[in-house]
Design brief:
With 267 residues, the protein is an alpha/beta fold. The protein is built from nine helices and twelve strands. Helix 8 links the parallel strand 11 and strand 12. It is globular and about 45 Å long. The model has no long low-confidence stretch (mean pLDDT 93).
Length: 267
Amino acid sequence: MHRKILHGAEREVSCLGLGTVKIGRNQQVKYPTGFELPEDSAVLELLDLAQSEGINLLDTAPAYGTSEERLGQILGSRRDDWAIVTKAGEEFIGGESVFDFSHAAITRSVERTLTRLRTDRIEAVLLHSDGRDVDILKNSGAVEALSELKAAGKVLSIGISTKTVAGGCLAVEMGLDTVMVTYNPWHTEEEPVLDAAAVSGDCSVFIKKAFGSGWFGQDGGVEPGDPVQQAFDHIFQHSASTAVITGTINPKHLRQNAAAARRVAMA
C-alpha cells in the first residue's frame, strides 16, 4: 500500500487509515444503519487484518466514546506498530458533544489520552473543531497548548480537523503539520485547503468522510461503477492527499477499502 510522510512525525503512514469511532460509540452517529460495539476479540482481529493489508494508521478521539481506552488495552506491546491520530477539544458526555478549546482543556485532554492509550507520545493530535475554525485557531489558546506538548515530545504532529475552508487554509498558513478535511467526489468545496497544502509542501492532509459517511453522495446521485473506487481515485488525484480515514468494523469492507486504495495511482 502507498505511504506518505506524516509531517511533524516524519514517519510514513499508509494512504488508508482505520477510523475507530465504531469501536467506542454508537450513539448519535450519522451512518445509514445502526451497529453494536464489537467485542475486544473482534477489534483485535480487525486490527490484525488491517495490518496484513498494509495499514499502519489509526484514527481515534475522546469524542469517540471508549475508543481511546479500548485501543490502549488492545494494542498493548504492539502500540509501536501504529501511527495514532487523535483529537482534542470535543467530548461526548451524556449523549451530546461538549467543546472546550482553552489552553488548560487541550493540555488536560492530551495528557488523559496518553494515559488511555498507554503511550508516551501520540503521532498526531488534531483540534476537533465545532465549526468555529478560525476563532479556535486564533483566539482559544489551543494551538499554543499543542505547540507546548509538541515541544515536550508528547505530540509529534499538530493540526486541526476543520469544517470550513477558511479554517483549513488558515491552519496551513499558520504552519500546522496536519489538517483534516471533508473531501470526496460529491463534496469538493474544501479543495482549496488541499491546494494550499500542496503549495506549502509541509502540511499533511487527512481526508474524512471520503464515502460521505456511507451515503456515497446519494443526495446528488451516484455515477455507475464502484463508488469506493471512485472516491479513492478522485481523492488521490490531488497530490496533497496524505491518507483517507475510513471507519469500519466490517472485515469485508476493510478488505474492499484496502484493495481500492492499492489500485489508486498516486498523484
